[in-house]
Backbone:
């Protein structure tokens, strides 16, 4: 058994982070912690957090830093993440979140921050065609020939378009990525913790690049 890993995956929405995080999670035997998935679960369950977050998410805006930091601090201290590590997907998204993450993880620092690089025009077309299973969260690409209603091949759930995958919200999220999240690349680059990986290619090719880069730094 390998000794786990503490990873952050950065990259534009639609860069393939979700797909690669699932594989990395199996490979390093650590939980995949997606703040977007956590928020969507809260929305589905109708919790106080979910009720507050729904309008923010649907508009393509960011949920407040304090809320997100509290959520992640609690999650990475859970039994499955505390000792072996985790893969953070969608967090941090701002420099303030990254600074707090360093404080929270001071006793067990991050091993590496990976930036999955995919050009904006490519992710734009992927996001417009993205469909997700409402139950298991699996991602699919619509080609226009799918049956309606579309049923998930993994679990039989409904495959739908995310409420925030409208053209306006997609463009807004990509703009926010440039202004809020891109500065993280400098933040982690300056402290020597960043690995930039070409995210264009088949899932297998990208996964091979990712594991090689991460294993070099463990
Ligand atoms: P994602 O699935 O990562 O694209 O996240 C979906 C939405 O959840 C984002 O567009 C934000 O509204 C919200 N969200 C997820 N992670 C964060 C975060 N770290 N900070 C602020 N908002 C977040």
Residues:
């Amino acid at each position: 058994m390998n000794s786990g890993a503490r990873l952050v995956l950065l990259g534009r929405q639609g860069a393939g982070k979700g797909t690669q995080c699932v594989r990395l999670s199996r490979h390093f035997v650590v939980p995949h912690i997606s703040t977007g998935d956590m928020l969507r679960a809260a929305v589905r369950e109708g919790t106080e957090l979910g009720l507050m977050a729904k309008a923010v998410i649907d508009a393509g805006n960011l949920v407040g830093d304090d809320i997100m930091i509290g959520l992640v601090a609690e999650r990475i201290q859970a039994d499955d993440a505390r000792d072996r590590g985790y893969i953070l997907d969608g967090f941090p998204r701002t420099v303030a979140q990254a600074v707090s993450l360093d404080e929270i993880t001071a006793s067990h620092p991050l091993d590496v921050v990976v930036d999955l690089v995919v050009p904006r025009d490519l992710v734009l077309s992927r996001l417009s065609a993205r469909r997700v299973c409402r139950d298991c969260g699996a991602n699919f690409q619509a080609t226009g020939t799918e049956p309606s209603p579309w049923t998930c091949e993994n679990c039989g759930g409904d495959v739908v378009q995310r409420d925030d995958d409208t053209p306006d919200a997609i463009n807004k999220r990509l703009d926010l990525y440039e202004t809020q999240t891109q500065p993280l690349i400098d933040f982690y680059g300056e402290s020597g913790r960043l690995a930039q990986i070409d995210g264009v290619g088949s899932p297998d090719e990208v996964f091979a690049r990712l594991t090689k880069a991460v294993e070099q730094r463990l």
